[in-house]
Design a protein that fits this description.
Layout: E1 4-7, H1 11-22, E2 27-31, E3 54-57, H2 63-73, H3 77-84, E4 86-87, E5 92-95, H4 97-109, E6 114-118, E7 130-132, H5 140-150, E8 155-161, E9 164-166, E10 176-178, E11 188-193, H6 195-207, H7 215-221, H8 230-234, E12 263-269, E13 276-279, H9 288-295, E14 306-308, E15 311-317, H10 320-323, E16 329-330, E17 333-338, H11 348-366, H12 379-389, H13 415-442
Parallel strand pairs: 1-2, 1-7, 2-6, 7-17
Antiparallel strand pairs: 3-5, 4-5, 8-15, 9-13, 9-14, 10-11, 11-12, 12-13, 16-17
Helix pairs in contact: 1-11, 2-11, 2-13
Amino acid sequence: MSRIHVIGGGLAGTEAAWQIAQGGIPVTLHEMRPLRTSPAHHTSSLAELVCSNSFGALQSDRAAGLLHEELRRLNSIIIQTADRHAVPAGGALAVDRGVFSQVLTDTLAHHPLIELRRGEVQEIPPTGILVLATGPLTSPALATALQNFTGMDYFSFFDAASPIVEGESINRDIAFLASRYDKGEAAYLNCPMNKQEYLAFWQELIQGEQTELKDFEQETAKFFEGCLPIEELARRGEETMRFGPLKPVGLINPHPGTDSPYAVIQLRQEDKAGQLWNLVGFQTNLRWGEQKRIFRLIPGLEEAEFVRMGVMHRNTFINSPQLLHPTLQFKQRPTLFGCGQLIGTEGYTAAAAGGWLAGTNAARLARGLTLLTLPDTTMMGALFNFISSASPKHFQPMPPNFGIFPPLERKIRKKQDRYVGYRDRSLLEIDKLQAEIYERQIS
């Protein structure tokens, strides 16, 4: 049977290679380190954790924890290894990162169907089944090759992304739905501010504590004037935001007894169901705790639930809604799969989940089996449905969160009970899937 190639030995590539081998297909895993280094990595080990050693919340009624549990039930090598080498971290799944990466490296290197090949891949092989898992620090040569293949620009820049909040947590008694000058369909939720509220918000914003950038990111940051963090814009003057993303012109507050707004924060719908809303123009480098504190000063967002915080970092990701199916196949080449941060998912566990699906489907393709499209009632399915169907114009990376789930059949008002309902529905689907995969493997 023809060998499958996986490019990139991070969390996604490691998981993909393992699942391909578990499917009985020989696989070559290409990792450029240590022959070519990256500015973020420090070792030559597979699945190196370059930031925190934490995979996020452990409880399965939390978004990250549910994704852990789904992968655990689907025999993910990443989560199995994390469980075995966990360290105390309160309610989070955290690992001894050195041991974790070394164990995975040794495990894959000794698998009879896995060849670990060191060296940079500079071109996309034109034939055969291939999984791309090169992450946000894809080498320049391969980035150019992918750019040429897709015929479109990478989203490759010093990225300052806006926060996203759950629609149900926005106070609609304050926020109102409207477009400027009532042109077209009312597409934005608008949070109005009076002058006193605006000035208090401006003061907190310019004094907010920021995240320190890595050395290689500091060199890049100065080139992106068109994507300034909101706090940097605020520092340019008291009125600057009112002539930028917070301009109130063309917006009339329809709520009775209200004056014309002095400033307006607009939120743009992020998903088809209207469950996720993006703070327009609020790309930021504030620390996450500061974001929650300061952005909840915005009228209507006092109890906002954030599904993704604003981030500012070196990032490379493709426009997945234009390029990928929910199976993680490229639309223009069904034998090519993508996974990991390259396709616009965020977080360690989401990278492993993408590797699981890309690797599983690559092996199924090689064996002539129907490829898996995961139900969007699972965290994995919801995540891959989102990145393959979101608006291409406004696409930004997405972490696992409950805001991308379809509603439950029975409406549950209490948030924590609703999350339990999401979990129970999801794990029923995962158990069905696991049983189906197992039956096919032994038949």
